[in-house]
Amino acid sequence: MIAPTSPAVQRGLIALVQVLALAVWFSVSAVVPSVQADFSISSAAAVWLTAAVQLGFVTGAVLSTVANLADRIPTHLLLAASAAIAALSTSALAWFADGLGVMIALRFLTGVFLAGVYPVGMKLMASWAPPARRGLSMGLLIGALTVGSALPNLIGGLADLPWRATLQVTALIGLTGAALAFTFIRPGPYLTRSRTQLEPGYIIDMFRNRRARLINLGYFGHMWELYALWTWIPVFVLNSSAQFSGSGQVMVFLTMGLGGLAGCLIGGWAADRFGRARAAIAALTVSGLCCVLSPVAFDATAVVLTALCAVWGASVIADSGVFSTALSESVEAEHVGTALTGQTAIGFALTVASIQIVPLVAAATDWKYALVVLAAGPVVGVLALRALPPEKHESRHPKVTA
User: Fold this and answer.
1) Residue 183 near residue 76, CB atoms below 8 Å
2) What's the half-sphere exposure (Cβ side, CA atoms, 13 Å) at 359?
3) Residues 144-199: pLDDT tens digits?
4) C-alpha angle 362/368/374, rounded to 5°?
């Protein structure tokens, strides 16, 4: 079968594959209470079911960069193979896991191969997007990441399945994404090869560059909040005073998933229209206020909590595409690959800490106050970006380096 060559169709297919393939990312997080009950796992230990994926993603991203896989293997085949193995790792967990150790190992493996899904998807999306439309195209891709990450909540909310069956459903969805990538997706006319090999020593030098340092601090603040929110918002909603006529998990999918998609598209448009720093500051400010207001919404009605989650879901991800683009324009061209790899690795490693801190705060106080600690990320991010010196020759339409 001949793959479609229309840029709009290809961009849509790449986004669809991201939704399907990334459904396995938070598949276990969505069923943690059932897993804890089956294996008598403490909350502190259960944190590692998500943290292991984050560490696996860091490992996979670094290894992929060192081996230069995106240039050695056709990008659509790398995407398809990575999605398939991540899905099969999730399926294996559902079939064979008999304790925390096996689950953590398989979740780590899932994260390693997800590093061949999301970053490679960015590269493919950029290959089909001219520079003038790249901001909005990246917004679409990150929106697809958001919907895919929230998809297990929809599955759990619509069908009362055992946790192993839920994982099998998400694995099947991931395999469907792999099949679509293999069959229909191809690289576009704007595909570029990586310009350099990884230079670990440059990561230290990068932080001596004031502009790059501030951009990275903004990104780290964004990451401190994002994945901890996605991990724990279902538990926060479950423990709140709100009484939902349906499942709270469906509400989480709608606000974090579809709300996040809307936020990504708006953020991508705003970054192209008003500049990256302004768009990111606005998103960080709104999401930080949501962190602070979360105890109020915790004790409020379902309508109020849903409204807060909708605003939070949109704002927490709206700035996600800004930081890699801004960093790629702030370092020497020969160091872009190393800079972006360092940014990603440190940012995802930082999420392990914030994911662990939230349940500790909940145990020490109450779930009502657990998410307030995430406000530290947006505060740091806003302060860093406000100190960012203006770029005299900054282009209105940024390029994205994956």
Assistant:
1) no
2) 18
3) 999 999 999 899 888 888 999 999 999 999 999 999 999 999 999 987 766 556 67
4) 70
Q: Which two tokens stand for residue 222?
A: 């964004």
- Cβ 150 vs Cβ 260: under 8 Å: yes
DSSP for 297-311 reads HHTS-HHHHHHHHHH
Residues 6+ apart with CB under 8 A from 340: 324, 327, 328, 401, 402
> Are 155 and 144 in contact, with CB atoms under 8 Å apart?
no
Full set of structural domains in the chain with CATH: 1-188 (1.20.1250.20), 201-402 (1.20.1250.20)
Residue 364's H or E segment, with its range, is helix 336-364
Structure pTM?
Answer: 0.87
Q: What is the Cα–Cα distance from 77 to 80, expressed in whole angstroms?
A: 5
- Residue among 176, 172, 77, 60 at smallest CA distance from 119: 60
- DSSP secondary structure of 134-190: HHHHHHHHHHHHHHHHHHHHHHHHHS---HHHHHHHHHHHHHHHHHHHHHH----TT
Contacts 24+ apart (CB under 8 A), 347-351: 347/219, 347/220, 347/222, 347/223, 348/54, 348/55, 348/57, 348/58, 348/61, 348/223, 348/227, 349/54, 349/55, 349/58, 350/220, 350/223, 350/224, 351/51, 351/54, 351/223, 351/224, 351/226, 351/227, 351/228
DSSP 369: G
pLDDT in tens, 12-23: 999 999 999 999
What integer is the mean pLDDT of 104-116?
A: 96
HSE-CB for 319 with a 13 A CA cutoff: 33
The token pair at 54 is: 């984050």
362: tokens are 């909940």
pLDDT tens for each residue of 293-309: 999 999 999 999 999 99
Contact 178/83 with Cβ under 8 angstroms?
Answer: yes
Between CA 172 and CA 180 the distance in angstroms is 12
